[in-house]
Design a protein that fits this description.
The chain has helices at residues 7-33, 36-65, 71-88. With 91 residues, it is mainly alpha-helical. It has one domain (7-88). α1 (7-33) runs antiparallel to α2 and α2 (36-65) runs antiparallel to α3 (71-88). The radius of gyration is 17 Å and the shape is flat.
């Protein structure tokens, strides 16, 4: 029998697989170019991908449980994500 997955879980898993694939591609490009300057450029491009995936995955998860939790808790979740993004932001 095939397990039946919730749409939100499938969407979240797909985004994480996409994110991991982008990370692996970046590592392959590091090796292909074999230059520190280009590796740093590729690595800095990944700084955009991570937060976008985090926000989208969280949004899909929250939408998946939106009818089960209160609006206040949803706001707290997004405040928490905002704190994470602020905390890892480089100056």
């Amino acid at each position: 029998m095939f397990p039946i997955f919730e749409k939100a879980v499938l969407g979240m898993a797909f985004l994480r697989l996409l994110s991991g694939s982008i990370e692996i591609l970046a590592a392959v490009l590091f090796l292909k170019f074999n230059q520190v300057e280009k590796a740093l450029l590729i690595n800095s491009s990944l700084a955009i991908v991570g937060p976008i995936i985090l926000i989208l995955t969280t949004a899909i998860g929250v939408l998946g449980i939106a009818e089960k939790i209160s609006l206040t808790k949803i706001i707290w979740i997004f405040v928490g994500v905002g704190c994470i993004l602020y905390g890892v932001k480089g100056d």
